[in-house]
Amino acid sequence: MATIVQCLSSCATLNFKFQVLSLKGASSSSSSSPTSSSLSTRRGASATVRSSLSFSKSVSQCVAFSSGNLWVQKNPLRQLIVCEAAPTKKADSAAKRARQAEKRRVYNKSKKSEARTRMKKVLEALDGLKKKPDAQPDEIVTVEKLIGEAYSAIDKAVKVRALHKNTGARRKSRLARRKKAVEIHHGWYVPDTAAAATEAVTMAA
């Protein structure tokens, strides 16, 4: 951007110098009448102006910049300076897709890792509670809080499509079955015989 601004400022400066010199050259021939002799006088004046532009000889026909080109067009009657900005290169679609895929991979990995960590904490707490001989029913409340945090992490992973919805459902069901097994082991939960029979028939079918 700074190079383009510098190019534009250089063009403005050169254009102003050309205008001043052209006015000086035209003022010497303004007193004559518009005849064939005056026309030749004007051509001679313009030639004098072109020859007096010694600073323009140091500028080549095309000066290349990092952000554009400066074109100097030589005309018998006037000098034209055209600033051409270099076209911006379009981003490579394959490279962009690779960056996006890497960004999504890291994000999804963090979501899946958080869900696994929460599940691991719940399973460790349930195993410790199951092995404890004098466990109290109030101790399951702490495990339920951990289960709620694990459910939340699994739901977030499913929402951003880091996990499939069926995978999330299976993991939540695994935690619920482990919790119920611990409650049955300590006698805190007595399953209904009719419901248990219905579940057994369903599983057998």
TrEMBL record:
Protein location: Plastid, Chloroplast
From the UniProt entry, list the residue stretches annotated as the region Disordered. Answer: 94-114
**What is the name attached to this protein's record?**
Small ribosomal subunit protein bS20c
| Natural source organism | Brassica carinata (Ethiopian mustard)
The lineage's top-level taxon is Eukaryota
Q: Which terms under GO biological process does the entry name?
A: translation
Q: What is the predominant subcellular site recorded for this chain?
A: plastid
Alphabetically sorted, this entry's keywords are: Chloroplast, Plastid, Ribonucleoprotein, Ribosomal protein, RNA-binding, rRNA-binding, Transit peptide
Q: Which residues form a coiled coil?
A: none
Q: Record's InterPro entries?
A: Ribosomal_bS20, Ribosomal_bS20_sf
Instruction: Please give the NCBIfam families that the UniProt record associates with this protein.
Output: S20
The taxonomic lineage of its organism, from the top, reads: Eukaryota, Viridiplantae, Streptophyta, Embryophyta, Tracheophyta
Task: Please name one Pfam family that this protein belongs to.
Answer: Ribosomal_S20p
Provide the Gene Ontology terms for cellular component: chloroplast; small ribosomal subunit
Q: Tell me the protein family, please.
A: Belongs to the bacterial ribosomal protein bS20 family.
Keyword Hydrolase tagged: no
The molecular function GO annotations come to: small ribosomal subunit rRNA binding; structural constituent of ribosome
